Structure formats: structure tokens, C-alpha cells
Please model this.
Amino acid sequence: MKHIAIRAGHLIDGKSAGPLDNVLIYIEGDKIVSVTPGGAPPSGVQVIDLSKSTVLPGFIDLHTHVLLNGDITVEDYDKQLLKDSIPYRAILGARNARIALENGFTTIRDLETEGAMYADVDVKKAINNGEVPGARMQVATRALTPTGMYGPLGYSWEIVIPQGVQYADGVDGVRKAVREQVMYGADWIKYYSDRRYHFESDGVLHSMVNFTDEEAKTIVDEAHRLGKKVAAHAIGSDGIAAALRAGVDTVEHGDGLTEPLMDEMVKKGTVWIPTVMVGAYVAPGRGGNWAKMVDLEKVAFQKALKRHVKIALGTDAGGSDWRELNEAREFQYYADYGMSPIEAIQTGTIRAAEVLGWADKLGTIEPGKWADVVAVSGDPLKDIKELQHVKFVMKAGIIYKNETVAQ
Model:
């Protein structure tokens, strides 16, 4: 078993109100054994000197698509499903999981394969088995909508083309689809609560709801019965309301959140995953209401903060090209929208770990947790953009990146 001591100049441990200075983190194998201010390493142990750095828990992204590589336009999306084989997309998926890791995201929740069937389970398996380096994963496999309510659409009916999701209809149909996805390795069930986002005279962002209430509730009930949580893509107020009626665990995107819906989320303990970064990234290329939706979400975020809605970090990476946009940009949006830097960091550490059901394993630097440790050169509490320049990454006690000056 490997024994490592990390000398942290400054430590943001994920749970304290502020940073701790000059801390020794002692690691055995894949776990943290002790965290001692001013501590001395045992003799003969490998010491990693991060005394000039700020050390944090590994970041967690709750909304990614490793099987997708940019989704600004319909053409961007369809091309990947129609021209790239699933094996090729899985290879890129492994590459993307590595990009996430090198950006400091030691854990991700991948919320559907966008037509690549169960390839997320394979990428996760290869990472878990040590075949390829990458972020630790929880996966949602194929996602669900009723027939005809997700692309690719508009092709000749004579051609059978790949579907972006699994179509499921009726109470029996959705129940079977949930069971099928769990059988093939889904850790989460994801469904599309709505589509066609539009503004009406009340100034609220509305949407067309996909499933009947009975179908949506069956999805949630069956997933929960099988010990799985449910994430709902819900952008418009109608789709969010439907998802809350169904009892989902997380609302994804949520641009159209209204104050009554926020109060309902607080009452039910539902977690909001805002995914601001990719929404802002794709808006100029998509046009229409998208720019207005980004502005609307900023207002919703500020209201949700005041109402104490549970917020955890998710980026929707994959909607942007993984090589172009660093997932840690999401932290900056939260700080710009009114969160304190420490609170923003917690959305992508301890709060995200709670959503995954892994709060006993992840999200803070303390004894008994997995040794997921990242470091940056500057002080992210003064400049949150520092999180976009991670210099050191350790996952489960293994170092994957070390660009620090003092080694």
C-alpha cells in the first residue's frame, strides 16, 4: 500500500467556512487517513510539497455527456449520431473523461449517451478497471422520452436512424424501460420532462410537457423502487412543475424556475443543477429565445439563492466541445450570480457528493474519504477563475497531473 503525505499551503476542505493554512494530509492507499494543521510527515513517506498552492477536494460535475462533442445546432448533433460509430464515440468518451479529470473533476455524473446506447457503462467500467485514466462516473445510459419527442427528427420514414434517447410510452412501457436501463448498468434514470420553450404574455418561460403525469410518476416510482434516483431535463416552468409533481431528485437546467416552483423545491428537498455554462455557450449559435433564457436563469439563480433552494454544480459539458470549454467555468458563473466563492466551491464538492449518495466517500478532505485532491496556484476565494487552472490532480491516491513548481 502506498503512503503519501501532502503539505498544503492553504486548504479549502469543502466543509469549513474558510481556508486552513499549513496542513498535512496523510494518505494510505486510496483513502485520507489524517488532516493535521502544522503536522509532520512520518519518516520514509513520499511527501508532495504543495506549500505554495491552495488545495481542495476533487471537483464533481453532476451533468455531463462524455459521448457528445458539441451540440450547438441540430446539424452538430445529428452528424455525431449518423456518421460516428458507437465504438468511435466511446473512444472519444474515454478521452473526454480524461479531460474532465485533468481539469480537476475527479467524479462526474454522465446524464445520457445521446444515441450511443450503453457505452457510458463501458467507459465507466474501463476507468474503474484502470484500463484508461478518467473521472469516476455514475451514469444514466439512454434517457427517456415519449415517441417522437426527441431527435434526430425530420428524416424520411423509409430510413431507420439512430435515436438520441429511448422512446417509451404508457405506464407499462416506461416501467419496462426503467427496468431495462437499470439491468444494463444505469446508476440514474434521466428523462426529458419538456421541450419547445417559449415565452407567453405573463413573461414566464413555458414549455410543452412530454410525459403524462401518470407516466412520469411511474418512471420515478419504479426507479426509486429499484434504488435509483431520477434526474429530469426541465427548462420551462411547465416542465419543471411536472417534474416536481412526479417527485424527481434533481431538476436539470431549470431556466424557467418561478418563485412558487422554488418554494416547492425547498419543501421537497429537490436539487437544482443549473448548467449555466453550456447554455450561455450555445445561445449565440442557437438564436431564438436562448439568449433571453440565459438572462432569465441568472435572475432565477439569484432568487433561488435567497429562497435557499439546494443548488449543486453541473455543466452540461458535451453540449460544448470538451476541448474548448473548461468545466470549472461553471464555478465562475455561480460566483458572478451572487454566491460566495466558498459556497460556489461547495456546490461542486460536498453538495454534489450528497446528490450522488457519496457524501461519506467524497466532497471533503477529511479522514476516511477517498483521496481525491486538487490544487491551484492562487487563491480561488479571491479569484474563482483560479479553478480553471488546476495544477495538481489526485484521484483515489493516484496522481494524474502535477504541474506545481514546488515538487
Notes: DSSP finds twelve helices and 19 strands in the chain. The two ends are 22 Å apart (CA to CA). The longest helix spans residues 86-102.
